[in-house]
């Protein structure tokens, strides 16, 4: 650990998180904005679903650590919402189990510290035609993405944590289907900018003490 110690922001999720530090990715955007204000840690695992995430909570977020994150941004849902296959070889997680897994993640994160803040990102929509053309994938459907996204948002309301419904956020932008993805599901710079802006808006509007909005946080060695 190097000093001085800054607030820690952890990004935890599947490939949408793993790839977020790529050029113009939403994680990279946040790291740039929070330079000299917070340290952003990436815990992204491509291909994972919420079932796998629950299994590693104690390793990724140990409760006995002296220093706990100030903010955890969680993304799972896209892989969970994939349609099941007859051979069982898919990342599909039934909706009811997905909700309970996200509940377990929320409970665990809440137990870390009274000052650990949480934001859940829901599954974004997809470009079904682009997915089929580029990756040959036809198991991801917008109807299911929306269903899982809405269920996650409802859980967050119940648990009293912040949620960003990416299905709804993307669909507010003109031509989102053609501009937000590199392959139909992973995010382009435009898609990443939408995610980053949504996160920044939540951080700005949240009534958290201390504030985690970049404008309110002190700059190191200013």
TrEMBL record:
**What organism does this protein naturally occur in?**
Helianthus annuus (Common sunflower)
Protein name per Swiss-Prot or TrEMBL? Putative SGNH hydrolase-type esterase domain-containing protein
Which family does the entry's similarity section mention? Belongs to the 'GDSL' lipolytic enzyme family.
Record keywords: Hydrolase
Q: Does the keyword Electron transport apply?
A: no
GO molecular-function terms, A-Z: hydrolase activity
Q: Which Pfam families match?
A: Lipase_GDSL_2
Q: Does the keyword Isomerase apply?
A: no
Give every SGNH hydrolase-type esterase domain span: 11-193
């Amino acid at each position: 650990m190097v000093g001085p110690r800054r607030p820690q922001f952890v990004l935890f999720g599947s490939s949408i998180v793993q790839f977020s530090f790529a050029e113009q990715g939403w994680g990279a955007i946040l790291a740039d904005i929070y330079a000299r204000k917070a340290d952003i840690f990436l815990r992204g695992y491509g291909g994972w679903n919420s079932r796998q995430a629950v299994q590693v909570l104690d390793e990724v977020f140990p409760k006995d650590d002296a220093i706990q994150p100030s903010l955890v941004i969680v993304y799972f849902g896209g892989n969970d919402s994939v349609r099941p296959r007859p051979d069982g070889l898919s990342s599909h997680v039934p909706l009811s189990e997905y909700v309970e897994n996200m509940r377990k993640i929320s409970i665990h994160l809440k137990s870390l510290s009274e000052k650990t803040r949480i934001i859940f990102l829901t599954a974004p929509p997809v470009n079904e035609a682009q997915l089929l053309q580029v990756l040959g994938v036809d198991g991801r459907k917008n109807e299911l993405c929306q269903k899982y996204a809405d269920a996650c948002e409802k859980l967050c309301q119940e648990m009293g944590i912040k949620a960003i419904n990416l299905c709804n956020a993307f669909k507010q932008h003109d031509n989102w289907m053609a501009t937000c993805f590199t392959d139909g599901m992973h995010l382009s710079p435009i898609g990443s900018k939408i995610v980053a802006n949504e996160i920044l808006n939540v951080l700005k509007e949240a009534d958290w003490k201390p504030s985690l909005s970049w404008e309110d946080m002190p700059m190191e060695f200013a």
